[in-house]
Amino acid sequence: MNTRDIGKFGELVAMKELSKIGYDILLPTSDHLPFDFVAYKNSMLFKIQVKTRSKTNGVLSFKLSKNPYPRYNETVQGRKYSEQDFDWLLLVDIETESVYKFTWEDLIDKESINLRIEKTKNNQTKGVWIAENYALVA
Q1: What CATH architecture applies to the domain 3-134?
Q2: pLDDT tens digit string along 1-19?
Q3: Of 138, 105, 136, which Cα lies nearest the Cα of 13?
Q4: φ/ψ (deg, to 5) at 14
Q5: Rounded distance between C-alpha atoms, residue 61 and residue 112, angstroms
Q6: Contacts 24+ apart (CB under 8 A), 78-85
Q7: Which is nearest to 117 in space by CA: 51, 53, 48, 49?
Q8: Average pLDDT over the chain, rounded to an integer
Q9: What is the DSSP track for 88-136?
């Protein structure tokens, strides 16, 4: 799979898991939005951004920036997401199809996240992002 296919796969996994816990999924008609889709439940709408990764040494890593679509052949650098771009960031582990949910409170002042799937060898927890704490649940 190429990177676009991997991203679409992650979006489908995220939609499936949200549907399992009662969310309706609303799909945009454009690819040029700062979010991937919208989830709806109990009269509330949530803009969802999905990142899809595979583990490296028991860690899922991602940066909190996006590459905007360049226009007219201009070179554009990635920019940080803003709080207006999405409500939740869902991280999908491509190997296990596990989904982890982050809100803006989790992401404030962060440029990247290293989510540990496996415990550290020395059992350190302070300052460590443990996957089970962010697992998508109802």
Answers
A1: 3-Layer(aba) Sandwich (3.40)
A2: 788 899 999 999 999 999 9
A3: 136
A4: -60, -45
A5: 7
A6: 80/111, 81/34, 81/49, 81/107, 82/34, 84/34, 85/34, 85/35, 85/47, 85/49
A7: 53
A8: 86
A9: EEEEEETTTTEEEEEEHHHHTT-SEEEEESS--TT---TT-EEGGGGB-
